Amino acid sequence: MAEVLQTLKNFQFPCNSEKSGSSEPPKSVHSVRPSDIKFVAAMGNVETLPDSGTVDPEKQKWTDQRPERVCMEVVTALSDIIRYFNPSVLRPLCVPGKRAVPHTGVEDWQAQAEELVRSMKEDQELDFQNDWKLINVFFNSSQDYVCPSAQQQRHTAGGLHLLDGALDYLQQEVPKAFVNLVDLSETLVLSHWDQGTQLSPTEEPSRHSGENLKLSKVVTQGSYQESWDQLLASSKYNEQESFVVVFQPTFYETPPSVSEGCPLQDPSTLALNLWNSMMKPAGQKDEPFGAGETRPVTCPSQENPYLFTYKNSKYLPRLLHSLEKLEVRDGMEITCPNKDPSDTIPTSVHRLKPADIKVIGALGDSLTAGNGAGSKPGEVLDVLTQYRGLSWSIGGDGNLSSVITLPNILREFNPSLRGFSVGTGKEYSPGAFLNQAVAGARAQDLPFQARRLVDLMKNDMSINFQEDWKLITLFIGGNDLCDFCSDPVHYSPQNFVDNIGKALDILHAEVPRAFVNLVKVLEIISLRELYKEKKVSCPRLILRKLCPCVLELSDNSAALASLIELNKKYQEGTHQLVESGRYDTREDFTVVVQPFFEKVDMPKTSEGLPDNSFFAPDCFHFSSKAHAHAASALWNNMLEPVGQKTTQHKFEHEISITCPNQSWLFLSTYKNRVQSHGSQLPCRDRAPSASRPTSVHTLRPADIQVVAALGDSLTAGNGIGSKPDDLSDVTTQYRGLSYSSGGDDSLETVTTLPNILRMFNGNLTGYSVGTGDVNDTNAFLNQAVPGAKAEELMSQVQTLVQRMKDDPRLNFHEDWKMITVLIGGSDLCDYCTDSNLYSAANFFDHLRNALDVLHREVPRALVNLVDFLSPSVLRQAFLGNPDKCPVQQASVLCNCVLTPRESSQELARLEAITQAYQSSMRELVESGRYDTREDFSVVLQPFFRDIRLPLLADGRLDMSFFAPDCLHPSQKFHTQLSRALWVNMLEPLGRKTETLDLAANIALSCPTQSEPFLRTSRNSNYTYPTEPAVENWGSDFLCSEWNPSNSVPTSVHELRPGDIKVVAAMGDSLTTALGARPSNSSNLPTSWRGLSWSIGGDGILDTHTTLPNILKKFNPHILGFSTGTLEETAGLNVAVEGARARDMPTQAQDLVERMKNHPEIDLESDWKLITLFIGSNDICHYCENPEAHSAGEYIQHIHQALDIFYKELPRAFINVVEVMELGGLHEVQGGKCDTLLAARSNCTCLSHSQKNSLELQELKQVNWDVQSGISRLSYGPQYLQREDFTVVVQPFFQNTLVPLNSRGGVDLTFFSEDCFHFSERGHAEMAIALWNNMLEPVGQKTTSNNFTHSRTKLKCPSPESPYLHTLRNSQLLQDRSEADPNVLSWAVPVAAGGGLVLGVGAMMVWRAVRGRQQETPPTSLNTMSF
Q1: Annotated catalytic residue within 36, 480, 712, 744
Q2: What distances in angstroms separate CA 161 from CA 51, 155, 201, 947, one per listed residue?
Q3: Would residue 391 show up in a list of annotated catalytic residues for this protein?
Q4: Among this protein's residues, is 621 annotated catalytic?
Q5: Which residues contact 663 (CB under 8 A, 6 or more apart)?
Q6: What is the largest CA-CA distance in the chain?
Q7: 588-615 per-position pLDDT tens digit
Q8: Considering the entire predicted model, what is its pTM?
Q9: Cβ within 8 Å of residue 726, ≥6 positions away
Q10: Residue 1064, SS3?
Q11: 480 belongs to the catalytic site
């Protein structure tokens, strides 16, 4: 007994006993907790053997003891566990039965029950009526339940009948009892199954005893447990509230490594197994543990703290669960236009049509044998039936309209097909025919199957062995993976491949005219998802025992990682075996790998759960539904070209059976793949350098030994090989066809950069082949990831560098490497969602960081930096073909490129950022940063910059150049990309082609004798251009018509610039030029009035661009301009920081007085030009007093000021500059100058408004009303009565956008130190915009400003139109709302900058387009971006 207690102490006990107790004694047995148990008892014979002869009694060490002691040790151990929850549990009791009697009789059970009741009643410490009791009834059915039979449930019922009397007596006499019914025969039999003992103890072998032992064993065991559960759940023992009987399986797995002399379960282990079983719901008691495991005690859960009964488990028999999903088997019809065989029997397997096939055969395991394919839901035992007629690759039951199998598809082409299996039976049954798959088979069994198949075909009189074309499908590997952990050496990838090779060798040597499908072993890891989902009804014990090495592993364990790696090596090994050419030595024989099982996603129900309708009742084998899917997938694979085959069949999708392509009717082989995308290389000199070059500038094509690629889905190859209507296949990555890194086939059939380079160096390595993601081995050094953005380029670089260092095929330090980088498309697709995150400045930084790592880490490398595909090309292809392209998914595919409207600000913004990205790339390369080493260089290949799309004869775009999503390039497009890249590489810098005409016949260039090298800046004798430093922000005066009128005009409509004698200005801090130059002290910013855009007169136009300095070119004696910073030299600049519209009448009156008092101004005769700009402060403070700051009030104040001028000033031309829009301040995000906080703190209404709030909408409406009201001033009649007076609105600020630098960031040179106001450069640009507006007709004025620096942007009066434009001399009264605003290429709206309160700079980081055009930017899901 002490040994048992010591053993129990070794088990981990993590339960919190304090949280497991009941607040009051339970009234129902279905709510009994462990802490409620006061007494543990047992009856039966614990050491009973299953049968004489089955177990050697001498090997039963612990059962050699007296039955009473063994029984007592078990219940004592069980009591000790309960004592953790209830310290007052009483001493246990055991009433053993007769010893070593295999079949205990009814009388003995009755006697034991009576003895147990008597003992409990006599126990003075036990409150017999009120204490809850745990009674364990140990029995041994000792029947042949392991042999599957329709009588199994009757056997179970018979076992219960033996116990009826005892259980009835206990139910009648014992109140408050939880009874465990424990069948010890399972414990003993299971242990000796694993030790290789006879399956069935009966003298007569059952009908399945010759079958796969393991499958029979686990299926029948699971079925046996289910039978007991169903029987007890529906019995009288599950009807009362104070008494219940629950079947507790005591499965105990003995590891294969346990020697024959090891004992079976010791008492403490048996007790712990029993306890853990009690802690699991009925129907889920299928998680045993073995002798070598140290598993903790299972604790009651917080949700279910009770001992589980059938009621509180909500037990529903698995059969009832499954009947809800009873599948109706269904077929389909195909109507292929050409089902004819070849005109004559073909002699080449590479010219084989489906109708030429006359014989079909198959090799494999239970998935090919069809185990359980026709089983009804819930009938687990029927999984042992082999439904060969339903088998995916070889079944011939019914026809295609009722059963989808490969033979039934082929019979649509050749009704005389032979060899398929029908009905049920084993491999040697008559109906099996040429289906020689064996349930439980492993790769080692294939040679035997191949031998038998060959013999059957040779000996069958209905088969012309020499002449008939044969299709043989081989599929194996699931059982190898399921058992690999038991013997890793035996199940090694090498042995797996070798065994398959032996079978194929037999077929290759002996079978003429054969096409062999080698189906890749499936990705078995997905089975874990089905196993672990408890909401799905599956017999987990059966699953666990069928595939222990897959299902018993812990998540994220090293063992699981090893399994995944082993699975991949199995798959890769089969590929390498076939692609070695070993089976392409004869014209009438080939082996083709069919990879549709390479990647398997568990099919899901609409609720997102694993869909077990695809599985047989054991949840391991395929149902007929899955067999149908597999058949269609295999057929489609057979028609798909090698290198473009589907590697992941979508089981959830509707079954689709394709027809042979009318232009290619043959089954695809490695030698007959389509040859429409090849190229000819005319180069005669393909030799490498005489010795390995040490300089990248003397590198010949043949010197390249390694190719690699980085980028997004374009480089990953998404959709290259997709069929025109197969949109879902665009997710397939056809890496072997990728323009820069693909190595499928050869240049004769597939044009890629590696295939071109392989014509110079046959030992080139690094290229990718086939399909798959970046982690697949065949991706090799193509590290591009679909959807990758510039931010992720660094990760790709790091992975690439490490792979190149680690791969034994590369000499990292000596081999010359060519690395092609293409990135940026995915960033543009999401740019509008976060303009800061995807800014050109960030793009520049990410690209630079990635190239820096290559430069630092990689010796001997030439890097091609390729431009990305222009957004305008994508829009043209995608939006121009709504019938073919998934336009409804535009926001999902590439939101920011595809959804903006034509001529919208969003589109202008996109073009601007695109140019900024391209400028960033050019700036980075031309910086010379990567030309500091002799063995490394980065070359910009610009062929992608200008794409010309091909047109069909009817003028429509030729969409065959695009994948089905109309975004990714097809193989035709990639072919042209490869050619263009190659040509670019041989062109010298400064003369590289920047245009790609997809319809052009691009010939592959050759290195010349005089120029044999791949071109770099040095061997091109090319010097990168440099931009001269800007010394000042002056402008050049290029006008020829600058003279004034011959006489002073009397009409304002005939006013020339040279006629202006006086300039003046009014407004706020933007007109006072606050902060235009940096401050030399810590004081407040200075107002540099002499630099003010509309009134400053410092210096001359050559150095300072202002409106007065422009006018000085026409009239050097102009008056009124400001100079310097002092108030005394302000001239006629009456602007005041912080001013609002209400201050304009005062400023107007002040200005009139200054003019009247100016000694040099002739008020009556001199023409005056006055510029008024105000309004930002009014809008910012609108919410404080809406009535005082309404648009109406604003316009009224402006009118009052203009009325003063109209009344007081003769000969006046008034510029009213339209106020900017401020509502977008909610999109402001901080950068180097964090304007958001400052802007909101100074702009009260913005700080109180939330995005899309009613307040913000109202603020925007006021802003728009102000703009609209101002714009009407040009058309209003009130100032048209005088010939010498006019008011003209200058609208250049209406759509002005913030200037960007070459990297797409906000150009801070336009702004002052406070980031609110304009710098001298900004004032110069405003002056240019105002001047140009004045020379443009009303109704045709530019409504935006181009902030690009140029000294020649000033417009000139023309001989035809020499006047400043007014409404009358414009001769055009076009409504401004109808005019198409000339929105230029800037990214973010500028906020107006009036006053100390709010400057223009506050808007510089807006990342949304003007709110009036689109309040909410579109959201991008970006599932397929590139």
Answers
A1: 480
A2: 20, 10, 22, 85
A3: no
A4: yes
A5: none
A6: 140
A7: 999 999 999 998 889 998 888 999 899 9
A8: 0.48
A9: 964
A10: strand
A11: yes
Q: Which helix (H) or strand (E) holds 1263?
A: helix 1254-1271
Q: In sequence order, what DSSP letters do the residues of 154-198 get, joined into one string?
A: HHHHHHHHHHHHHHHHHHHH-SSEEEEEEEHHHHHHHHHHTTT--
**Tokens describing residue 340:** 């004819």
Contacting residues for 1106 by C-beta, under 8 A, at least 6 apart = 1091, 1092, 1093, 1094, 1095, 1096, 1097, 1098, 1121, 1323, 1324, 1327
| C-alpha neighbours within 13 Å on the C-beta side of residue 69 | 10
First to last CA, the chain: 70
Contacts of 1254 (CB under 8 A, 6+ apart): none
Distance of CA 1128 to the CA centre of its chain: 67
Q: Could you tell me how far CA 1265 lies from the centroid of its own chain?
A: 46
For residue 94, what are the β-bridge partners?
Answer: 42
Catalytic residue among 366, 679, 741, 1271: 366
Dist CA 1025 CA 1022 (whole Å)? 9
Beta bridge partners of 1096: 1122
Q: Cα(1320)–Cα(1032) distance, rounded to whole angstroms? A: 9
Q: How far is CA 405 from its chain centroid?
A: 33
Burial class (CB in 10 A: 0-12, 13-18, 19+), 72: buried
Pairing status of strand 1297-1298 against strand 1388-1389? antiparallel
pLDDT value at 199 more than 70: no
Place of tokens 């506050």: 1402
Provide long-range contacts, Cβ within 8 A and 24+ apart, for 654-659.
655/332, 655/404, 655/628, 655/629, 656/632, 657/332, 657/334, 657/404, 657/409, 657/632, 659/334, 659/336, 659/337, 659/338
pLDDT tens, position by position, 1120-1149: 999 999 989 999 999 999 899 999 999 999
Structure tokens at 530: 């089905």
| Helix, strand or coil, per DSSP, at residue 822 | strand
3-state class of 1184 per DSSP? helix
Taking the CB of residue 278, how many other CB atoms lie within 10 A of it? 23
Q: Which residue has the tokens 């009288």?
A: 236
Whole-number Å distance between alpha carbons of 548 and 566: 15
pLDDT of residue 5: 46
Distance CA 170, CA 160 (A): 14
Residue 1119 · residue 1079 · CB < 8 Å: no
